[in-house]
Every structure is written in structure tokens, then in C-alpha cells.
Records
---
Amino acid sequence: MTTTSRPETHPSTHRMAQVSEDAALPTHIDVAGLGEVLLGRWPEARKAARERALDPRLHSDHNLTFEDQRERTFEQVKILRDAGTALVGMPEYLGGSNSPGANVSAFEELVLADPSLQIKSGVQWGLFGSAVLNLGSEEHHLQWLPDILNLTTPGVFAMTEIGHGSDVASIGTTATYLPETDEFEIHTPFKAAWKDYLGNAAVHGRAAVVFAQLIVKGTNHGVHCLYVPLRNDNGEFLPGVGGEDDGRKGGLNGVDNGRLHFTHVRVPRFNLLNKYGAVDENGDYSSPIASPGRRFFTMIGTLVQGRVSLDGAATLANQMALTIAVRYAEQRRQFNTDSDIREQTLLDYQQHQRRLIPRIAETYAMIFAHQQLLDKFQEVFSGEDDSDGNRQDLETLAAAFKSMSTWSALATLQETREACGGAGFMAKNRIPQLRADLDIYATFEGDNTVLLQLVAKRLLTDYSDEFKNADVGVMARYVADRATEAGFNRSGLRKLTQAFTDTGDARRSVNALRDPEAQRALLMDRVETIIEDVADEMRAVARKSKKEQAEVFNNNQHRLIQAARSHAQLLQWEAFTEGLEKIQDPGTKRVLTWLRDLFGLHLLEENLGWYLAYGRLSMRRGRALQSYVNRLISRLRPYSLELVDSFGLSAELLRAEIAGTVEEERQQEADEYFRRLRASGDAPAKEAKPARDPKAETRGHHA
């Protein structure tokens, strides 16, 4: 077993005496072994990417003007090109390795160097290039991908419109087939149809993949994608193409975002990326997918890579922020609580532990969930299992995890910023700029709230499918079960039963909640109950007008998003539980089991009002839950540093002053100064407290 001891600059083993429940606590976590597990299925790709991230040429420089930041980022992308990173996920006939999972794993690590670099390279190869690869034919690949891969053709992914950000199916740009010239005419008929927020559009883009309504012989076949040249070699827009610069943004200013519009721009019929919809030389449209709706979602689903990679990048941002904050909190001392001469470290305070340790637990859950998402992505895009069902599962997982991780990253970056005080606000300590750069992650590649609605609709669909072919007997039993369940919970019988069995010993309540099956059941119950309630309301209006159905759906939108969030958290908890099986070292596994329990029980604590309201937990068990979460956090406190050290992020990768030993050195200097002062006998005496005057106190009370 490989073990690592805590550096002397981060002492924390003195907290071991606090724990009474598990006397035989392990002394250390196997940091090296755990670190390997956390790297996932493609560790070498991640390690190589981290090695590249040490190159100062790839680092952010926010002292530059945003115009200069854009040029610096473009030069950084060229460094990646020269390293051959873009080829990893490409087919072998293009010189690639056909390893989408390894490609995304390495790409995610770019957030360590510069989020702007990650996003700009992602636009070029992960969006622009992937659209040609996944929506085009082999002829398209051979025609355009070599120049895309070597940056001869910097490109734009032109999907989003000012008027239809998330509602891609309703975009206004059109691509009309002209049989007389065998061309498509690309046109934005009104300003709301302008393509906006597009990376590479303001300055560097030479071509774009443009999403438009495909109109052939007077029939709209829905959204399709076409390859459209934008600028000449001098960087000037081609005839009919226009655009604007989005200018300075709240973050990611190394990416040149802009708007594009098209006025009767013509491109050859060949430029239609025709894997899922083609127009032949006779002007006839055909598609291997008959249903327009299914065709649309299949095309959009091929571009899921962006959401997968954002989930991984946000998870890495959490690791960075928590490593910085925990290392600082292990050194920073403030207030004398149990000593007259030595102040307390921040991480010894319960509230500081509450701020950081549950977020460590959440981040571990995110890591294991992301590993499962990457496995699913590899299966689909390498061809191992490219079935419709697997694609749908991938899209749902990506929507769920991307939403949860990007929101978590923003919350964690804010919490760690505050937890580090004024030092956390200094740009040299990375957190403020990471917070600014990752802000947009919550709304691009799909607004999180909209994505969770997609997850909720999938839950409703799966739920209704269970009963699609059910006979009368099955439905009768279901109705009876629902009636019994509702009566049981709403009458408070379950609550009374729990209150009775819980009396006498609070540990009995805790033991029930420590059981992983109980945690899973409670997490799942919240999802199923909400979905069942909404499904019942939707079923009641199933034969009524669309307006009435839409009204009922809208009235339940908030609950559906709650269900989707809870479903994503359940999947994260399950991934964490499965991830425990990868841990070989007994001590490490024990600590991570506590960490998994903390993740699950903290979720229950956050939603305690719901569990009490629905009778899933008694008041006694609710109080025991909160108490036990505190004990778990206290138990995990001695391992906080080792848990974040297992992320494998060196000081050179973090590039944050307070993640090193600077604070400990300041504390040691201050300690030495006061030690010498006390030893010299010259230390000034403290001002004596004034004598107590009982009469004055009495007069004060009378007043």
C-alpha cells in the first residue's frame, strides 16, 4: 500500500481524539492509490494534459486587453494543434486514434491552464469539427476536416439565435434549395434570427456550420446543418455575410464571441451535411429517419460532446477551488479559543468544516458520475454500442450531470472565495477569475433549467411507458397502492410509527439512515413521488385541449425540475457507491464510505422539509439526521487535506499563492516573534478588566 504523510505545514492528526464511534480509525488515506482511481479510464490522457498545462505559454494573462487576450488564446490553440491533441478522437483514416473518451478527458484538463483556451479549442474541434464529423459524410470529412484540424480553417458553430436560444427547433434562419443553380440559399429574414454568442465569430472564424430550416420544393424538413464560408484570407466578410463583435464579456475574454447574419448567401448542394438528411441532384429530399422530430433530436444528440466536457471541466474547477481553500484553511489561524498563545486553524471550526467538507463529498460524487458519463460517451461515439437507447441514455445523463456540476462549480467557487476571506478575492489566487470564466458554463451548451426539463420529460416518458401495455389488473393494483400510499403518508401514520420506534435511543434513528439502502430508497422516493404526482395530473387532462394540457404542465414545471435535480443527485449517489468498489485500500475505502454517506445524508438534510411534509421522516429522525451529519463532518475533518490532495493538483497546476506554504510561513514568523517577546520579559501587560460594580448593574437593569 502506498501512503503519504501530511506535510508538517498542514497538521490535522490532533483531531483524531474527537471521534468516538470508530476507535480503529485509519491513520492515512492512500493518496496515490486514490488519485489513480480518480483519474478514471484514461489516466495517461489526463496526465499528459496536466503536463501540458504546466507550460506558461498556455496560462491565462488577465492583465492584457481583451483584444490581446483573444490573440494570445488563438496562439495557444496553435500550440495544442502542434501537440496533435485534436487527433485523438478522430477516425483512423484521418490519422486519429478513434478514442472519444480519451479525447474529452484530455480536453477537460485544459481548464487548469486557461478556461478560454478550453472553450476556444472546444469551439474549433469539439463543435465546428465535430459537426462536420458527426453530421457529414466521409466526402465531407476528407474535404474539410484536415484544414479544421490543422487550424487552416478556424471555424464557428452557428446554432444559437437571438430569438431562440434554447428552442433550436424554432430557429428562423432558412436554407432554401434552388434547383436552377443546384445551391442552397442561406438567409436570416429578421434580426431575431441572427446567430449570436458564437465563439470565433468576431475575429478568427473563416467558415461556419450553420443550422437552418431546410426548405426543399416548398416543404420545411426542419433544422439541418450546412458548411458556409464566412471570410476571405484577409479576414473580410464574404458577400452577403455580416456580423458584429459581442465585445468584452463577464469572463472567457480570450474567446472572440460575435454575431452573424446572412443575406441570400449561396452555397453548393454538397455543403449540406447530409448524414441524416440529403437532397439529390433531382432536388428530392430523403432521410434515413422518417420522423422529423426524431431526426432533429438525433442530429442534435450527435453534438452531446460539449455537455459531457463541460461536466468534466466544472468537476475539475471544484477540485481546484477546494484544494486551494482546504490547504489555506489548514494553515490560516484566527481567534484564540483553547489557547492563550496560539490561534485556531480555520478548518477546526465547525462552520468552516460545514462550508467545505460537504462540497468535497459532492465533488467526489461528481467525479464518479462523470466517469460513468464518459464511459457511455465512449460506447456511443466509438461505435461500441451506438444504439438508439444508449444515445438517449447518454443525452439524458449529459443533460443531468452538466446542469448539476456547472451549478455546483459556481456555488463552490463562491463558497471557497468567501472561505478564503480577502485572500480569496485576489486574482493571484485563481478563484475570482475561475468564478467569472465558469459563469457562462451554466447557460451554454444548453441552459441548465431547460436541460433539467428535458430530464424531467424523460422521467415522465419512462414512467408512462411502464403502464403503456398494462392490463386492467395491473392498473387497479397501482391505483390501490397509490391510494394507500397517499393515505398512509398524509395521515401521518408513517410519522407516528417512526416516532414510536425511534424513542429511547437516538442512535437507532441514525443507524437506519447510515444504511446505504435506506439512503437510496429515500433519494429515489422523492423522485418517484414527484413524478407520480405530476403524471397523475397530466393523465387527468390527457384527452383535453392542448391549451389545458400545457397549463397543467406549466403549473407543475417547478416540481418537475425538482424531480430532475433529485434524479441527477440520485444518479451521482449511485455512481459514488459503485465507485467505492474500485478502492482496494481498506482505510481509504472506509473514509470514502463516510464521504458517500455524507453526500447522501446532506442531500436528505437539504430537502428535510419535503421528507417531513410527506411523512418520509419523523421529527425525531430529522433531528437525528442533522446531528449525525455534523458528526460525519467532524469525523472526516482529519482527512480533508488528504481527500483534496488525492485530486492530484500540484501547486504548479493551481498557480494560487495561498495553496502553497506562504500562510504557514507567515504564521510561523508571527509565532516566533511572540515566543521571543514572551521569553524576553518585555511583552506588554494586558489591560486589566475593570472591577465589577453590582450596584451599577442593578441601576442599569432598573433603567
---
Amino acid sequence: MRRSGWLSLVFGALVGTLVIVLLATTVTAPSNASRSDCVRLVTSSSTEKGDLIAELAARYNETGRTFDGGKCAKVDPHKKTSGATLDLIADGWNDIDQHQPEPQVWMPSSSLWLDLLRQRGKGERIKAGPKTSLATSPMVIAMPEPMAKAMGWPEKTLGWNDVLQVNRDGGWASKGAEYAKWGNFTLGKDNPRRSTSGLAATIATYFAATGGDYGKIGTAETVQFVRGIEASVAYYSDDSVAFLKTLYDEDRKKPTPYISAMAMQEQMVYLYNRGVPTGDPAQLNANPVAPLRPLVAVHPKEGTMLIDHPFLTTASASPEQQAAADDFYAFLREEGQQKRFRDLGFRDPDGRPGPDLAGIVGTQGTQEPPKIGVPTGEQIQKMLDGWEYTQRRGRILLVLDLSGSMNEPFDKNRKDKPYSESRIALLKPAIRKQLEYLHPEDEVGLWTFSDGYEEKMPIGKVKNVRGPMLQLVENLTPRGDTALYQTVMAANDKMRREFDPNLINAVVFLTDGENTEAGTKEQVLQNVDADRLDNSVRIFTMAYGAQADSRVLDEIAQKSKARSYQAVDPYGIDKMFVNVFSNF
């Protein structure tokens, strides 16, 4: 063989070996998830896109991406309602009840929350920078399709004035005798202090009331209009994702729609109609079942707000975490990830919808109204302050378990405080704090139960009964067994007998155990079954500690068209009460 030919073979072999080595290196390069030297980037997302962000974070962590000359990041995703996260950021982040670490990236549903943070004088806790958006979604009035048609949709463009007029005209019967069975027009709405959907709906009603002139927020005409809308609210949810799950479950059980309308993002209507009310993207691949009565996304004719889903970096982020956040944002804006947002019903950052969005949410062929002007942080705060006096007030019966187990330690297996303290001792300050938060015009009463039940304080205006009730709570002494079933039915019967259609009528029921007295679960569920939304009593249940019968409490709450809550450790007690009373 010639020397040149031999050299060619050697050179070719070396090149081939090098190519194989490079390919092997490319294929076997470790993902960020498997590396121990990556920058940890904690994110907190709003709940409606929390599962999607978790999916995309996992995708990012598997890419092996690097930035700043070879550094890598590992994203640790969490989710929480935008309003709750605002409070935590403003207060210096104290979330030990859920053990969620302080985030370096906040992805609320709307920049409105950043405006409110600045209004509180805490805007410096978010790094300044250019406006960002991951996706958008308009705020809509979501109505079961039969009800939307009864109001003239799709030929008629509906709005907040139409919502207001139905009850002023005598309820659904005003639309025809065949609709009288639906009772009053009932609106589902999130608490605007905790949820973007609730906040955007409150702004939209003020916009409709003032004709877009936010300088008229405090006028008598505006207050009257907003109060009329709020009077239709069945109760205030703390999270519309959880509300939609209940709506979906009820859809196949009864011929009457669970609610007349719900203020929410268009994207959530899309997922609901696809059969995925929880927003979990994995369910789209599991042959979800569409509801019998799909929702129609009504864009209010007075104008609608475009929710902008910003990507914000907190001031607590280190320079490395800031760089990691920039890289994660760039990743989320790439086409592959943007397609996933569109797959779940979001519009792109400029407000453009995907090809099948309009057909699924019922806006095909209808004209979109203009987007409303975004108020300033000061104006938003004025609306929230005004909402405190226009919202539908609550008539609440607080029912507390005083069985002997309430004297036991919260956790018998731990000796450290607060776990070693008695359940009743830990409960009293949480109750006192919540009674202080109730609005003076709300109504509240107190029952306790053990072997039987006892009225401790008749229902009265908070401003009149708060002081005496605080003293009663301080002197509560547990003893006896747990007449859970008897007490639930008696409380429900009392509230139904004294039902006030102008208020949110509810029982807030707390127990740390299981029923030990007469009665069956079937009797209770039949007793609390909410046959009609406008004359039923909501029973919000609280499972206090690990020994509480949370399964039964869930069923009771669901049957009465309310929600159940749980505190599995002492740090979750305050949060449980805040979430429950956010419904009023």
C-alpha cells in the first residue's frame, strides 16, 4: 500500500472515531435534571396554568440547556392563586403551611397583581424590566349553552347589563315559562382579592357601570349597578379551577344547570368543554369526556379584559438565578412551548387565538367586543375597597366540634410545638382572627357539638355579636363524643328555615373526627342535597387534623354545592379559615 493511501486510511479512521465520540457525547450529555451543579430556580404560577408550567419545566430540565458560558438551571415549579402569592410577596414570603419555597419567578395570571403590589408600596420586590407575556386569555362570562340561548345568544350580544336585568325582571321565568325551573340568575365569581378571574370581573363590572370612566367609581349610580351584579353571586370561590371541577361533576347528575354563569378566563372554558376542568394537560391525552352542557364564552358587549400572563422575576433572585430566569423565559417563548399554550386554549402573547379555539368556546361567527382600558393600581384598589361594600353579604352558621378528642395533641406522635399542643388551643386563635376579618354587615352565629349540638350564639350582625362570640370561643371546653351526622342535618334545617334570599346562606362545619352517634351518611347526603341553587344552603366543611373523616366531609360539601377544606398540620389552620371565608 502506498504511504499516501495508508495515511488516508488512518486519517479517515481518526475522523470517524472523532465523529462517533462527538455523537456519543451529544446523545449522552446529562440533562439538567440529573446534574447537581445547576442553579435552582423556584417558580410560582397561577393555578389555571400550574400543571402546564410543571410540564414545561420538566421539559426544560431535560434539555441540557446552558447559559452564561456553560451554567445550567433546574426549574422547581409550584402553583398558587395570584392573590395569595401577592400577599406572600408583599409580606416577605411566609408560606410554612404548605412548605412552598420563596420563588425567584412569579407567573400570575395578570399584570394587575403587579400594579396592586406597587400600590401597596412593595413594587421593588419585583425586578424592573420590559413587559413580558407568556400567553393571553380574555375574561368572559361563561354560561351553560341552554341558558345563553334563553337570553338570545348567539343572535344577541350579551353583557353585564343583561345579567343585571334578568333578576330585576323576576329571574329566569322572565325569559319564558319553560325556564322558570331555573329560579334566579345565579353568578359564580371568584374572590377578587385572591383570583385574577374575580379581579378582572370586578374591573369589568365597574367599567360597564361607568362607561369606561374610572373617575366615576364611587358614584351612587356605579355602586347601585355593581351591587346589582354582586347580588346574583351564589358564593365567592377562592379558585375557579376548583369551582369548574364541581361544575363538571354536577353536569351529568341533574337536568338543571349548576349555575347560570361564571366569570372566568376564556382558556378555562376551552378546557372545560374539552372535558378537562382541572386544567391538567395530561388529561387531554386520556380521552376526556365533554360535558353534556358545554359553556359558551360570552365576551361582554361593554368590553372585556385581556389577561396577559406575565413572567416576573423577584428581587430576591441572585444574578445567577436572574440569568436562569431569562433563559427559562426564552425557552417558554419558543414555538414548541407556545404551541402547548395554544393546545390548552390560551391565545398567543399578542391576543391571537388558535385555529380551533372559537369553535370550542362558542364564539365562532360572533364579533369580539373591544378590550377595556386597564385601570391604574390606585383605581383597582378603589374598586376592591368598594367591593367590600357592594359584595353580597354572608349569613354564616359556624359549627365547631367540641368532642373530647379536641383536647388531644394535634399530633400524638410528636413532642415538639405546635404539634404537641391541644387541638382546641391551636384552633381558638384562628377563629378569633377570622372573626376579626369578617365584614361588620355579615351575619354570623355559633353552634358547638359533641354528644349533641348546642346553640352558643344566635345569628346576628358581626358588628353586634363579634365581641361576645370572641369571649365564648375563648371559654370553649371539649368533652363527649361526636354527633357529626345529627349536627350537620340540624344546622342545615335551621338555615333552610331561616333562608334569606338576599344573602349567601352557609354553614361552616369543622370537625377533627368521625361520627359516633346515631344517623347514616346516606341520610345526611339526602338532607343537604342542593336541589335548587337559589334556595339551598352551602355547607363548607373543614377537616381538622389527620383523624377527621375527610372523605365524608368532601361528600357533604359537594352535595350541598360547596367546597371542603383541610388542615393536616398546625401551620395550615389559618390558611384553611382564610380559604373558607373567602367564599363570603
